[in-house]
């Protein structure tokens, strides 16, 4: 990014840098549908390329014709998950649902403490954050995703994971389908029967065992289809990385926002440990990257994460967020009722002590008279 700004400054001057900053602010720091339109455009362009350069070869020796319809259905499922993620409520905190969100998570006084939101003017629940892009407080804030133009939080993390999973599976299916279609076309054109002869040694090998020949043949006869297959393979790794990272954070009971907070805690502990050992604090930028792996200094014991309830409990909390909120609110209400009962029990002896000694109440005098009558 710094290199790009440097090039813009030397090629376009100060006005170019100012225009770049304005474009970056409008695209990344403000809610806008630009990335949503980009995603729909990529999806539509990819579907068009498959229809015009891959599905036209169906059926072939390797792929039956019904994959044309299953591929269309895969695109439709991705589009539906995209709409779900875009339109879902991330868990916006309001005055009405504030008690439930406040009861779900308690402040750990480490990465979250009691703090009032200066914009929303209420005490911010633990694990929540005010999104400056959308101008709202979101429960269990993960991050603001420009692709869906929406925040990712407690109530829509399942929608976001579904969006990532469906796109990842579609990319895997598209890559395998493209490879199978190209493989069937190579067989239909007799490529697997071709032989290559080394005139120096006289060795004869099949053409499909030579990667260079296979690549050359594909680029000559199927350039767009081969490019689409390569694009889908690269997208598989990209989407797989995003999905794996989100699942890893879920298993650890963290969010993306909290992972950076834990990183700050770890760096602070490293600095304190170095200061205790009277070692100079490293100022290299790679220190942050190394500190992501907490084996950088095994002597440093990180505090426990109070929000990590275990894999299945974390997953249940995400899949059924409304049930988790209702249970937390019910539990909080029951605790408040128990506290009130304890206060009443503690105040009861004080009320009895207000009766002056030597002066019995009316009920006590009646009991004494009845006891005397029985004796006589």
What does this structure look like?
The chain has 376 residues and is mostly helical. Helix content is 61%, strand content 6%. Strands 1-2 form a two-stranded antiparallel ribbon. A two-stranded antiparallel ribbon has the order 3-4. A hairpin with a 6-residue loop joins β1 (115-116) and β2. α2 (34-53) packs antiparallel against α3 (67-87), α3 (67-87) packs antiparallel against α5 (157-188) and α4 (98-104) crosses α11. The radius of gyration is 33 Å and the shape is elongated.
Keywords summarizing the entry:
disordered C terminus, 376 residues, mainly alpha
SSE blueprint and pairings:
Layout: H1 2-28, H2 34-53, H3 67-87, H4 98-104, E1 115-116, E2 123-124, E3 129-131, E4 136-138, E5 143-145, E6 150-152, H5 157-188, E7 195-197, E8 204-206, H6 211-221, H7 223-251, H8 256-276, H9 286-292, H10 311-319, H11 321-352, H12 362-375
Antiparallel strand pairs: 1-2, 3-4, 5-6, 7-8
Helix pairs in contact: 2-3, 3-5, 4-11, 5-7, 6-7
How is the largest sheet built, in terms of strand order?
Answer: 1-2
Q: Which descriptor suits the 3D outline?
A: elongated
The count of helical stretches stands at 12
Tell me the strand percentage band. 5-15%
Task: Give the C-alpha Rg.
Answer: 33 Å
Task: Give me the count of strands.
Answer: 8
How can the largest sheet be summarized? 2 strands, antiparallel
What's the average pLDDT? 85
Poorly predicted segments: 292-296, 372-376
SSE ordering: HHHHEEEEEEHEEHHHHHHH
End-to-end separation in angstroms reads: 105 Å
Amount of helix? 55-70%
Class of secondary structure makeup = mainly alpha
């Amino acid at each position: 990014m710094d290199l790009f700004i440097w090039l813009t400054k030397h090629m376009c001057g100060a006005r170019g840098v100012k225009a770049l900053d304005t474009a970056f602010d409008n695209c990344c720091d403000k809610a806008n549908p630009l990335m949503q339109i980009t995603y729909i455009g990529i999806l539509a362009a990819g579907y068009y390329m498959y229809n015009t350069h891959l599905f036209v070869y169906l059926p072939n020796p390797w792929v039956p014709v019904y994959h044309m319809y299953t591929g269309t259905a895969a695109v439709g499922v991705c589009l539906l998950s995209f709409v779900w993620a875009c339109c879902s409520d991330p868990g916006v905190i309001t005055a009405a649902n504030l008690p439930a969100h406040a009861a779900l998570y308690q402040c750990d006084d480490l990465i979250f403490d009691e703090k009032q939101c200066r914009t929303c003017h209420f005490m911010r629940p633990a694990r929540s954050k005010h999104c400056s892009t959308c101008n709202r407080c979101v429960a269990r804030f993960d991050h603001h995703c420009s692709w869906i133009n929406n925040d990712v939080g407690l109530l829509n993390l399942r929608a976001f994971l579904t969006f990532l999973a469906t796109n990842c599976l579609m990319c895997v299916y598209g890559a395998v389908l493209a490879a199978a279609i190209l493989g069937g076309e190579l067989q239909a054109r007799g490529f697997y029967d071709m032989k290559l002869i080394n005139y120096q040694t006289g060795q004869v090998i099949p053409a499909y065992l030579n990667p260079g020949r296979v690549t050359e043949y594909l680029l000559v006869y199927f350039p767009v289809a081969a490019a689409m297959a390569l694009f889908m393979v690269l997208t598989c790794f990209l989407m797989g990385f995003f999905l794996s990272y989100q699942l890893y954070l879920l298993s650890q009971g963290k969010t993306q926002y909290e992972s950076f907070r834990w990183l700050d805690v770890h760096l602070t502990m490293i600095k304190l440990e170095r200061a205790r050992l009277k070692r100079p604090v490293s100022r290299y930028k790679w220190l942050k990257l190394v500190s992501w792996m907490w084996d950088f200094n095994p002597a440093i014991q990180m505090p426990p994460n109070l929000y990590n309830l275990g894999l299945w409990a974390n997953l249940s909390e995400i899949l059924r967020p409304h049930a988790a909120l209702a249970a937390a609110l019910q539990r909080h209400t029951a605790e408040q009722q128990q506290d009130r009962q304890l206060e009443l029990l503690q105040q009861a002896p004080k009320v009895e002590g207000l009766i002056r000694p030597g002066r019995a109440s009316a009920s006590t005098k009646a009991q004494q008279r009845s006891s005397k009558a029985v004796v006589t």
